[in-house]
Each structure stands twice: as C-alpha cells, then as structure tokens.
Amino acid sequence: MSATILTRHLHSHGLDLVTDTHKYRKVVALRPLNKGSVVITSRPLCNPIIFPTHRTQHCETCFRTKGSGSATDYGASAAAGARSGGLELERCSVCKKRYYCDRDCFTVAWKGWHKWVCQDKDMEDLDYEMLKMIVISIERLRNGAFKESKQSGVATATAAAAASHGTGEQESLALTEYVFSTLMGHEAISDPAEIAKYREIATKIREQLIVAKFPFKSETSRGEPPSVAELMRYLCRFHCNNFSIHDSQLFTMAEGTFPVGALFNHSCRPNAIVMYEGQTQVVRTLEDIAVGQEVCTSYVDNGVQRAERRQLLRGKYYFDCLCPRCGGEGSGITTEKTGFRILDDLIEGDQDGEDGKKVDGEWLTKQFETIILPGARSLQAAGPSLQPPTMINRGSFTSYIIHSLVPLIQTGVTEQEYTERLFEIYNALRTTPHCTPKPFTTTVMTNATSFFNTSLEHQSWALASKIGTFILALYLMIYPRHHPLMGLHCFTLAKCLWNDVDGGMTSVRLSHEILKLSHNILTVSHGRTGQNGSLVKEVEEFMRTVETELGS
Known about the structure:
The chain is mainly alpha-helical.
C-alpha cells in the first residue's frame, strides 16, 4: 500500500491531497462539488468505542439504536421502528456490559475483538480500550483474519452510505491502515505527563496481549506484539485524529478513528460537515465547492468564542487556526478587521442579566416577551438589504437577522450573495448602539438555550416560540447557513409554533415556513437516504400535518 493508492482513491471521489506550507497537506476539489453532496465516506480503523452511558442504547457492532427499526429494515424511520415494536438489544452474558441487536452482530464482535476484551477490567478506560482495539484490528488485517465480508448490519450501513456518493472507489481495509500510518501524532511536542501516561498504557496492553496469547501471526509482527514505542505512536495518532461520533440529532455517543476523514483540515467556517451512518463516516458539503478549493470540516463547535476555540485546537490538535474567521496569512487579514473576523468581536462577552445580578426566569421572561414573531410571508422572498434598527436589543436583533437572512436561504441564493449580506449585518451590528447586556454574545446564547429548554419542559409554547426565534437569529449570525444544528433547531421551533394555540393560524403559518427552512437545511446537511435521511422524512411528514391544518 502506498501514496499512489491513496491518490487514486481520492481522485475517484473528485479530490486530491496536496502539500501546504502552513497545514502540511490539504484536501482540495478536482471537480465542482454541489452543496448537499457526499464528498467521501470513511470507515473506522477499528470498532468505535461507545461511551459507557450509551452502551445500553446501541448495538456495539452496527450501532443501531434500541427502539429503532428492526435488523431487516436498517435506515427505516424512527416512526416506522416504533410501529414495528422497535429493536431490542441483548447484553453479552459474560461481561454483561456490551449490547448487541442479534446473534450475527454478536458473532462478528466475538470473533473480531470482543473475546479478547470481554473480561479485561481495564477496558473502562477510553485510551486503553481504543489502543487495544487498534492493535487487534491492525493485526487481524495484516494476518488476513479480517475479511471484507458482509457483517450483519455493519455491511448494510456501509453499503447504504457508500451507495449515496456515486461512483468513487470503496475504501479498503488496507487503505484505512495505510492512511492511519501517515497521520501526525505530534509526540515530540505533546505534554510529557500525557506521554508518560501513554507509555504506561502501552506497556500494560503489550503485557496483557502476551499473557492472553493473542495470535500475532502476520509477517510484520512475527509472533510479537508491537513495541511499546509503536503502541505509543498509535495512541498519539488516535488522540490527534479521533472523532466524536454523533447520531442524526447530533447527540454524541461514541469515539472512533476514521483515517480518511482525518485528512480534512479544520476551519471555523467550514464548507463541509461530518455525519455518520452507523459506523460509516460521511463527509457532506455545506456549500458549492469550486475546483481547487480546499474542503474543510470543523473540529470544534463554531458557536464558542475565539479564545476557547484556540485553546481547544492548540491543546488537542497542536495548531493555531488561520481560517478566514480566525485570521492569518491567506485569510485576508488587514489592520481593520473585516468579514468573518468581525464575528468573534461581536459575540464575545460574559455578561447577561441586569446590573450584574444573577439571571433568573422572571428577568429572562421580560426580555423575550417583547419579541415580535415575524410574519410567514415576510420570510418567503429575498429583498434589498434592510436598514438596521437604531438600537439593538433582543427584539430588534431578532427581527433584523431573521428578516435579512431567512429569505436568502429559502430562495437559495449563492454563497457569495449570502456572505455579502452577512458581512453587511456584521458591520451594522458593530456600529449600531446596543442595550446592556449586549444581546448577541455566546453567554446570552447559552442562557437563552437553557431557558428555551425549560420553557419546552413546561409547555410554555408562546414563550418558547419567541426564545427559539431569538436563538435562530443567533445561529444564523454564527453558523454556516446549512449547519445541521440550525436545521434541527428549526424543526423544534416549528413544533413550538404549531403547539401555540393562542397564536392561532398565524403561528401555524409561521410554523410551516420554519419547517420549510428546516427542510432546506437538513436536506443539505443530512441528505435523503439512510438514518440521517429519515430525519428529513420526519420533517416532511410533519409538514404535511401542518399543511392539512392550513387547508393547502
């Protein structure tokens, strides 16, 4: 296996891996990539690790969810799964800690890895568990024990995800291992305390595998497990390149190593998103990507402030971000901040509440009750730029952002047109007087989100609708327009509006418009096939319910 094979694989997907002065290397498009398309899929190097708190809810082998569709209808909607009684999981009778959806998945797990880890008490440590799984996976691949066979729901999920991205080559296990070997681990600049910890874990695993008489039969291993130094390199690569695996609702439930997916660099304003179909990682475009343009995902939440993002990126990935939002060479940096570089100055701030007092429900209610919800028709057609309000408070901010940006998404303007309008808004917010506390900081967003969830729990639909619309305005300001978080929030907001009986048909009509927005966004971020596509179908099903009430 060589770089030539990797190049051929990437070329088959319309991608190329090129060197870069600042980033070491980067993935660029060889052909135009339309927004909402699957760029490539990536398979895990070894079975991903489900967090202990989520083990009872997911099959360890195929990741199907308890209560979802049965083993024969993988990818069916949640509603269909519920009607059929839902998927049941059974735990391993020996360790009583891992769960499986059927005997096929248990057999795959037992032969593949579980019999070597079933009674290992140290498997509760994530680093230990992942390293041991990587060693087992690589050795089984090298000695021919790991075949490209149909493995219950795993193969079904992988095939479904791969089928959705066209004619590109399927990723072989050998390619997965090769790409992993090329990933950077940054051992030389890692924290000495972390390196000492890795050495201890590596030594323990090596000794345990020798005692357990794990069959190291490949020509590479020659009967011996990898050295402690090699095991430490594995663990360093994992730490600098691992992914948090989430479901279609963006709830994190596992971690895994996806070497091909790790080739994509980070941007705080990404043009692609990482999603998952079972154990298959799917990289999807959020915007149209031109020939020669770099394809970037995001390693951190784009909704946190610059200082926190920098700390996370430096602490885990060992680089300083030079993307257009953070600034740096090649990002259009000037003496005066422009474009996306204005955003972080706008959202920075740790104040919320009145005169330094603790924020409570009564105060927040007064802030959000003044918000006037937009009319449905006002969101349907894009018009000229709006004049900013003379004073920015939560109500005027919400109206300005929603009326300025939602129609652009609904009518499908180009990314350039949308970005130009966004920059106009940033400049207006920077120069227009605002109330105290500043209404569009991440601190305000955090408090608003918490209060929104409280309002949902209390079924205070009218108040929740106003808070949810304010949060949508913040998301529009901060996140890429087709970010899945925004689409999911719109779906929840539409349900609030529909449940707001006091709002009458006005709320129902606005619910329908927000559902259309949710559908536009999630079709790009989730697609229409597989598990993720089931969410889009749920939106469509609810939309039909609302349309029936509207008589349309």
